[in-house]
């Protein structure tokens, strides 16, 4: 590995300050759509309603702790972002610590900067607060623990890896890679250390399953997560992902290759280099098993950016340090490099518009902030107006049903769900044959029976221009309601009247 680049400007406090300023932009973000159901599930959990039993979601439970922490502050996007930014600053520290150990403080600064910049620029587009973001933090923490301990701290590493698996079980692939790295460490009792790591990494998910087993609801958890995911949501690996040019082409992959070569060429860090490459491969395989959304790639990008930071430090060492002896001038060169990275990436982005309005004092309300993120698929301004409208009219004990749309009003107003299926998308997604599974038909009957019995005060339906296309065959919500739930459609026509229309949403109230 080339000589370390340790300069004043790349210190940890300054890195945290720079990244903290950038991360503060996330306070202008609304709740992204995937955050809202999990936040609502967490709020209902505090009322004693078990996930998958009182409130249904196809995701695994690990990320709920983040939303519970946010609810301690209060039920709002700002409260969630406070907790999220705290985790992100912890991640900056983790990446800085790994980078500093592998390539010097400059590597740590660049690793933290690349991560933060990518997170903020992509955050409002369905990345901020996603479960895979927190899984990546856990995986990176496991890497730091291992590197710092010379691969001895298998228990702590196992806990972090187990948290990642509790968030998404496909990260078991990363557990395998880490176990192999521990196995190749030059220590005695290799089998015992690997077995201990694997056992500890299985504890969080196994403990959760045992709790649900004793509560008599293990089948509810199993069907909602594993069975639904493998039979309907994503029954086949998506190998076409391997053909994406962005994996192989562009500045980031090239810089990551340079960083990999630098690590592997250094005997002292060769094992670390192979570990990071193995984790990138595991991240790629995990994405193949999923839908390939941006957040599914988060661990891949994290480890790629870490290697790219090493590559940038190598370039800086050979192109700047060897020709400029003055430390003051070297610090200035790093400052210019950081400024260039920020300008090139932020220029023309949504966040540049947010910064411009903030400088001119135009961000003076929640709506003025959220207006920057409105598009055809996401309207946080209308969604917030709707939630505030429902909260103002709601009474204790009110129930509300959202059909194929947001549960943000229920979350803000702390309303009871009409039934456990707070998300109807899994009831409406079609399998590979274009139909519904027996399990889905059973869920559909349960959904219909519960609504006909409970008859919630409000019923929310959206009229978007198009649906997400994930298994619905292009059907719009009202068409799906008519085809799949005709009894509920009749109930709405007979017992409900339109209360208000806000944006794409029509809120029906019981007569």
Write structural notes for this entry.
The structure is a single chain. The chain has 511 residues and is mainly alpha-helical. It contains 22 helices and five strands. A five-stranded mixed beta sheet has the order 2-1-3-5-4. α1 packs antiparallel against α4. The radius of gyration is 24 Å and the shape is globular. The model has no long low-confidence stretch (mean pLDDT 90).
Question: How would you briefly describe this protein structure?
Answer:
The protein has 511 residues and is mainly alpha-helical.
Strand and helix layout:
Layout: H1 12-23, H2 35-45, H3 64-73, H4 77-103, H5 105-123, H6 131-148, H7 154-167, H8 172-183, H9 190-215, H10 218-233, H11 251-265, H12 270-288, H13 298-321, H14 327-346, H15 350-359, H16 366-370, H17 380-393, E1 399-403, H18 408-413, E2 416-417, H19 425-428, H20 438-454, E3 458-462, H21 477-484, H22 486-495, E4 496-502, E5 505-510
Parallel strand pairs: 1-2, 1-3
Antiparallel strand pairs: 3-5, 4-5
Helix pairs in contact: 1-4, 1-5, 2-3, 3-4, 4-5, 4-6, 4-13, 5-13, 5-14, 6-7, 6-13, 7-8, 7-9, 8-9, 8-12, 11-12, 11-13, 12-13
